[in-house]
Amino acid sequence: MPRLSLKLTAAALALCAAGPAWSQEDGAASETPAESGAAALPDGGLSTVVASVNGTEITLGHMLMVRAGLPEQYQQLPANVLFEGILDQLVQQEVLAQSDAARETEGARITLENERRALLASEAVAALSQDAVSDEDLRAAYDERFAEFEGETQYNAAHILVETEEEAQAVKDELDGGADFATLAQERSTGPSGSNGGDLGWFSAGQMVAPFQEAVETLEPGAVSGPVETQFGWHIVKLNETRQQEAPSFEEARPQLQQQLSQQAVEAAIQGLVDEAEVARPGADLDPSVLDRTDLLTEG
Q1: Are residues 99 and 132 in the same domain?
Q2: 129-164 pLDDT tens trace
Q3: What is the distance between the alpha carbons of residues 51 and 39, in angstroms, rounded to a whole number?
């Protein structure tokens, strides 16, 4: 894995090869800090020195940032597996960074500037969005969006699927003669719903192929169609009942409303900051093809 030390990779592989030495059910691996009791921080907190390389200090904070940025497959590993590997990784990186082979190219310097800018911007967005939307805002948005909500019609139907029009017509004739729909579906339907009496459950317009949907919409509840052809074969369709889709409750709509309103609030805040700033774009007239000159980044 990229940016993982050999020791960390080896430890993870050894853990996997050893079988289920731990799992999500194990308390040490699955409990949250609040449940298991978070480890007490040393007196130095994030600044606690965990190693030094030629006088350059590596701190607990550095280790925590590596831990937080590990690939997903490593996130569930317990701390006692990760600790030594992360520390070794940081020591190795610092040794390499101090070596004669290391050089700060233009690309490395600019990457650091971009990453710092991006990290600070991310922190600002988090701060802007934290209290951007109140419950009153959410309630008002919910009332505005769903006050006159008219849900689409939903259909509950069943079908019997056969291969030919002649078979479909024969099924229809049996139904007209008093045969039970669900029993015939179990006996004759080639579709996966046959074993369930042909029941398709509830669906809305657009969820079924067009000829099937059109047939359903022409039926009254309890009625049965004639043969209907689709790319799957020939259907006999029974409409059981219809209903109007109800508006979601406030709690059901809350997550989506929260996301939308927070995004709008943050975008407005960002635009306000841009409007207040003295922004100049002297490079706006550059030839866009200069973006292809990535070879410049290796200089240094």
Answers
A1: no
A2: 888 899 999 999 999 988 888 888 999 999 999 999
A3: 20
- Asked if residue 291 belongs to a domain, the reply is no
CB 262 within 8 Å of CB 133: yes
Q: Do the Cβ atoms of 58 and 51 come closer than 8 Å?
A: yes
Model pTM greater than 0.90?
no
Q: Between residues 203 and 149, which one has the greater pLDDT? A: 203
The answer to whether 151 touches 244, Cβ cutoff 8 Å, is: yes
Amino acid, single-letter form, for residue 286: L
Domain presence at residue 124: yes
d(CA 48, CA 106): 32
Range of the domain at 34: 6-106
Same domain (yes/no): 180, 88? no
Cα separations (Å) of 105 from 110, 118, 141, 257, 295? Answer: 9, 20, 51, 46, 11
The reply to whether 194 and 232 lie within a common domain is yes
**Cα(288)–Cα(295) distance, integer angstroms:** 16
| DSSP tag of 291 | G
Nearest to 221 by CA among 283, 160, 156: 156
Q: Is residue 66 assigned to a domain?
A: yes
